[in-house]
Specification:
The complex is a heterodimer of chains A (about 325) and B (about 230).
Chain A (H helix, E strand, L loop, with lengths): L1 E10 L9 E11 L4 E5 L6 H8 L7 E6 L2 E2 L5 H8 L2 E4 L11 H12 L3 H14 L15 H13 L5 E5 L7 H18 L2 E6 L2 H7 L2 E6 L2 E7 H5 L5 H6 L12 E8 L7 H9 L4 E10 L2 E10 L7 H9 L3 E6 L3
Parallel strand pairs in A: 3-8, 3-9, 6-7, 7-8
Antiparallel strand pairs in A: 1-2, 1-4, 4-5, 9-10, 11-13, 11-14, 12-13
Helix pairs in contact in A: 3-4, 3-5, 4-5, 5-6
Chain B lengths: L4 H39 L13 H20 L2 H7 L1 H8 L5 H25 L3 H9 L4 H40 L2 H11 L3 H29 L3
The chains are: A alpha/beta (about 325), B mainly alpha (about 230).
The complex binds adenosine-5'-triphosphate and magnesium ion.
């Protein structure tokens, strides 16, 4: 649905003394149809710049951006405006017009596309129902809570039936419960409407809750990307480690410490118990986390096995054989 | 004080009529051109919707600089000097420089830059996020100016307008001294030159009442328009 190829964006200096900021340094990214794609990264990594390039709010320095089969970078201004009707956008600070009621805000995009009044009214009522705000149509944004404002923002973005929804930190100014309900809503809309969502966040929790795929951006480059479940089974994945922080407990010297990652049906199996039974060893659990990531139960565990890596070769091989990702952190000292 | 109302009332009524006439005419032009200049000042600035008209950033910068320069000139001349300087121009377009209609010319020229700067401030207060949201929805520049910038700034613009009306009232009194007529003229001619304090005080009261009413109405309208 979205294909980004060799995208560069630099900001030229405002005056002679300034330096050029290279915000994006060659981004390649594909967001498949119907996905919820999360882009994570530290502040200043280039997340917002990347997202704003997708609907060309920011014109790339070079590279191409294809949305729904159309290369946006080749479009003239008028065609670009039309293309934007098919790409909804949600903002951290909602960006609702204070002079308009909730319904009028939702209708704004339809006004731009020239939909007549009656049809606008009907459509705004429809999408407001969808986001659970059917009864607040005539309120003004200032009369709503943050979560409700974001629902209006989402309704506005959806009013024109876009194929793609872009979200820049949509939940970052909301409290945890409200964040939860907005994430649920996005997931629900993705499921029922089939809208592809590309979202930016600095909270791993958001990725954990709703994303099917994710990419990590560092210093303007994508350092990791892919299906979340696949990432969890990828050795040394930074995203996986960020999703599952296990603490620093390292075990006794001379013993073997391994980390295992498991997803899907394996998460339901009593791995540790079976291992100690099968091989007669005392397995010590140093850390463990089991969570639901994009509707899959996945877990990560740090285990301490008595003795050297060599002496544990057979149990480790057995774990790998059963489909688990196993990483050996330290062997006998 | 011994006031002859029978004489005074018609004189004052005529003067109030003249004041309203010159301010009214000036106000119409001030609103139209002040809004236009204010919008241009904001939109041709860096980051504005017309920062690069016809694709040229240079052109945007030039328009912005020239407009700002002219506005500053208008703002830097004391009204009385502006009025004198404009006499040939006023004569050219009205045929005379005496009377309320003629006075509307310098009043308009003085009020446009003043109102335009206030409009500029009001438009700059509109959150850039709103413009960004409109752009993301595929809005044209015109839509952004009308439905985002001007629509959101309406309460501030109404207040800016009342400030401008009050300034115009102030200027109109000065205009009165060189033949425009109006309330200021009465205050000077009867109050100052003839030492008739009853005229002086009555005109002061009238001016105070007008200013209070303008401000009251503007504040009420602004409050109604504002949903922040
Ligand atoms: N308009 C601009 N002009 C100059 N530099 C900019 C501009 N916008 C962004 N940058 C620079 O580009 C880099 C990436 O910024 P960006 O806003 O994309 O980061 P981000 O990942 O969204 O950060 P955050 O999590 O804080 O929002 C930063 O170094 C920033 O200073
Ligand atoms: Mg950002």
């Amino acid at each position: 649905m979205i294909t980004i190829t060799d995208l560069h964006k630099s900001y030229s200096p405002r005056n002679a003394r300034g330096t050029t900021v290279e915000a994006l340094k060659g981004i390649d990214l594909t967001v498949a149809d119907g996905e919820i794609f999360g882009v994570v990264g530290q502040s200043g990594a280039g997340k917002s710049t990347l997202l704003r390039c997708v609907n060309l709010l920011e014109r790339p320095t070079s590279g191409s951006i294809t949305v729904a089969g159309q290369d946006l970078t080749t479009l003239g201004e008028a065609d670009l405006r039309v293309a934007r009707h098919g790409i909804g956008m949600v903002f951290q600070h909602f960006n609702l017009l204070s002079s308009r009621t909730v319904a009028e805000n939702v209708e704004f995009g339809l006004e731009i596309t020239g939909v007549d009044r009656a049809a606008r009214r009907a459509r705004s009522a429809e999408v407001l129902d969808l986001v659970g705000l059917g009864d607040r149509a005539s309120a003004y944004p200032s009369q709503l809570s943050g979560g409700q404002k974001q629902r209006v923002g989402i309704a506005r973005a959806l009013a024109g039936n876009p194929k793609v929804l872009l979200s820049d930190e949509a939940t970052s100014s909301l409290d945890p419960e409200t964040t939860d309900s907005i994430l649920q809503l996005l997931k629900e809309l993705n499921r029922t409407l089939g809208v592809t969502i590309m979202l930016i966040t600095h909270e791993m929790e958001v990725v954990k809750r709703i994303c099917t795929s994710a990419a990590l951006i560092e210093g303007g480059r994508i350092v990791e990307s892919g299906n979340v479940i696949d990432l969890l089974n990828t050795p040394k994945s930074k995203i996986a480690h960020a999703l599952f922080p296990l603490g620093e407990s390292r075990g006794e010297p001379g013993n073997t410490v391994i980390e295992i990652m498991y997803a899907g049906h394996l998460a339901d199996e009593p791995i540790v118990g079976r291992m100690s039974r099968e091989f007669g060893i005392d397995v010590n659990i140093l850390g463990a986390a089991v969570e639901v990531v994009s509707d899959h139960r996945v877990g990560r565990m740090r285990l301490e096995l008595p003795g050297s890596v060599e002496s544990n070769a057979v149990p480790i091989a057995r774990l790998k054989d059963s489909g688990l990702y196993v990483e050996v952190l330290e062997g006998a000292l | 004080m011994n006031i002859n109302w029978g004489v005074m009332i018609p004189i004052l009524a005529k003067a109030i009529g003249e004041t309203f006439q010159m301010i009214g005419i000036a106000l119409v032009f001030t609103i139209v051109f002040g809004l236009l200049v204010g919008v241009l000042l904001v939109s041709t600035d860096e980051g504005g919707v017309y920062e690069a008209p016809f694709g040229s950033r240079r052109l945007g910068a030039i328009i912005h600089a020239v407009l700002g320069f002219i506005v500053n000139i208008g703002r830097s001349l004391p009204f009385i000097i502006l009025m004198v300087v404009l006499i040939p121009f006023t004569r050219l377009i009205i045929g005379t420089f005496i009377g309320p209609t003629a006075a509307a010319v310098p009043l308009t020229i003085a009020a446009i830059p003043f109102f335009a700067r206030l409009v500029e401030i009001a438009l700059r207060e509109v959150d850039t996020g709103l413009v960004e949201a409109a752009r993301s929805m595929g809005a044209t520049r015109g839509t952004i100016i009308w439905k985002v910038l001007l629509a959101e700034a309406r309460p501030s613009i109404v207040l800016a307008l009342s400030t401008s009306v009050i300034s115009l009232l102030n200027y109109s009194a000065i205009a009165g001294t060189i033949g425009a007529g109006g309330i200021g003229d009465i205050a000077i001619r009867y109050g100052y030159q003839r030492y008739d304090n009853s005229y002086l005080f009555t005109t002061i009261i009238i001016l105070i009442v007008i200013v209070q009413m303008v401000q009251l109405v503007a504040s009420a309208v602004a409050r109604r328009l504002s949903h922040r």
